[in-house]
Amino acid sequence: MTHLQSLLDGSFALLTSLVAIILIVAALYRSTGKRRQEYIPGVPIIGVEGNASLADARERFRNNAKEMLLDGYTKYKGGPFYVPSPLGERLMIPPKYVEELKSAAVEDCDFVGTFFEMFEGRYTTMGDRSTLHPRVAKTQLNMSLGDILPSVREEIEDSFREALPLCDEWTEVAVADRFVTIVARVSSRMFGGTELSRHTEWVDSTINFAVDGFVLAQKLKAVPELLRPLVSRIFPEMKKISAHHETARKVIVPILERRETLPKQEAKPRDFLQWMTDEAKGVEKKKSFLSKIQLKLSFAAIHTSAAAPVQLLYDLCVMPEYVTTLRSELDQVLQEYGELNKQALAKLEKMDSIMKESQRFNPLLLITFERIITKNTTLSDGFTIPRGTTIGVPAQALSMDPDLYPDPERFDGFRFVKTGEKGALREQYAASNLRSMAFGYGRHACPGRFFASCEIKMIMSYLLLNYDFKFPEARKERPSSAAVETQLLPNHDATICLRQRPSRVWAN
Ligand code: HEM
Known about the structure:
Layout (H helix, E strand, L loop, with lengths): L1 H31 L21 H22 L5 E3 L6 E3 L2 H7 L7 E2 L1 H7 L2 H4 L7 H12 L1 H19 L7 E4 L1 H17 L1 H4 L2 H22 L6 H4 L4 H25 L11 H8 L7 H32 L2 H17 L4 H6 L1 H13 L6 E6 L3 E2 L5 E2 L4 E4 L1 H4 L16 H6 L28 H18 E4 L11 E3 L2 E3 L5 E6 L8
Parallel strand pairs: 2-8
Antiparallel strand pairs: 1-2, 3-5, 4-12, 5-8, 6-7, 9-12, 10-11
The structure holds protoporphyrin IX containing FE (HEM).
C-alpha cells in the first residue's frame, strides 16, 4: 500500500512537472509570436527540385541567394514562388501583387516587423515602430537637400583628407572600411552638424551599432528560438549595443539641451536632429528617444550608402574606359554651375546612370519590399496570402530581366542615359517603381534615397577629381561581393592603388 501510494505520489509529481514544462514551453512559444507556416498550395519552393530536401535548400540559400532568386524569377516569371530560408519560406510576389499591396494598411502589411524578424530586433534593438524618422526624411530632409549640400561637400573634403590622404606615389589601400567612415561622417553632418560628424565616439557607434547588431542577429539565429532570451545575454554584442545607445544618449542629449537655450531670434540649425525635434509629438519629444532614433537612422543610412561607391569604384577599376567620360561630364557641369550644387548634381546624368548600373549588378539588398502579412489577404485575382507570410520582391533578379533591361548580363554604364533621353524619370538612380526596386516601393520606399543619391555622386566626384585609381597588378578580376543570405556586401579585403591627381578639389 505504502509502495503503491509512493508510486502514485511520484507519478503525480512527474505529471505536474510535465504539465508545468508544457505550459512554460507553450507560453514561451506564444511569446515569440512564431506560428507554423501555412504554405499556399501550388506555389513552388526554389531549390527543392530533384532530390534536394527543404533543409538542403535552406542551407544553400544562405550563400547562393542571388543565383536561386534569379532561377526562381526566370522560371516562374509573372507568378509567385517561395525562397527557402531558415526563418521560414519567403514568398516572392510578382509586380501585379506589389501594386495591390503597396498602400495596404501598415497593420496588415507590416514593414517594421521584418526588421524584428531578420535582425532579431527584440535583442539587437534594430527596427522601431516610430514613424518620426521616415516622416522627417520624407519631408524636411528632401525639401532641404539644396540647403544642406554645401556642408555635405565640406564634410566629404575633410573626411577624405583623414581617411584617404592624398599621396604622390601609388599607394595600396583597402578602401571599403574607409568609405564606411567617410559616409558615417557625411551622414552625421546631415544628422546633427559638426558636433556629431567630428565626434569620433559617435561616428564609431553609428558604424558599429549596425555591425554588432548584424553579428548578434546571425549568432542568435543559430540558437533555437526558445533559448534566445537566455542565450542572448552571454553574447558580447548585447553589451556593445547597449554601449552604443549610451554613447548616443551621452552625445545627443546635451546638444538638444544647448539648442533649447539658443535665443529665439537665432536661426535654427538645419539638420535632422532639429527637424525631428520640431516634428516630434508626445513621447517622441523625449531627448533620450530622439537619441535612440538618431542611432537607428544611422543603421538605415550608413552601410547602405557606403556600399555603393565601393562597388562602383571596383567597377571603374575593371572598366577604366568609363573614367575619362565621367571626368569630362564633371568638368562640363562644374564649368556651367561653378560648384556641385543640387542643379549641378542633377546634370551628372552619366554618373547617375553608372551608379544605377553598378547597383543592378551588386545591390546591397537582393530582396526589397519585405513585409509580413498579418491577416489572410485575398488579392483581386483570388490569390490568398496566409497570415504570417513574409513577402518580398526579388529586386536584383528583376533588374536582370531581359524584357526590362535588354542584354541584362552586359554592364552598360550609360544605359539609363539613353532611355532617360525621353525624359523618363523612372530611369534615375533614386527611382522607385515596378522595374526599379532597389529602394523598395510604395508607402515605405526609402525616403533617404534622394539624399543618398546626392551623397554618392559627390563622393564619386571628389574621388574622380582628386585621385587616380587602379587595382594592384596581381588582381585580375573584380573582387566578388560577400553574400550573406539576401545581402550582398562589398568585398572588404580588396585593395586599390590610389595616387593624387593634379588636384582641383571641386572648384572650377
Ligand atoms: C544607397 C543607399 C540606400 C539604400 C540602398 C536604401 C534602401 C532602402 C530600402 C530597400 C528600404 C525599404 C523600402 C521598402 O521596403 O519599400 C529603405 C527604407 C528606409 N530607408 Fe533607405 N536606403 C539607402 C539610404 C538611406 C539613407 C541615406 C537614409 C536616411 C537618410 C535612409 C532611410 C531609410 C528609412 C528611414 C527607411 C524606412 C522607411 C519607412 O519606415 O517607411 N536610407 N531603404
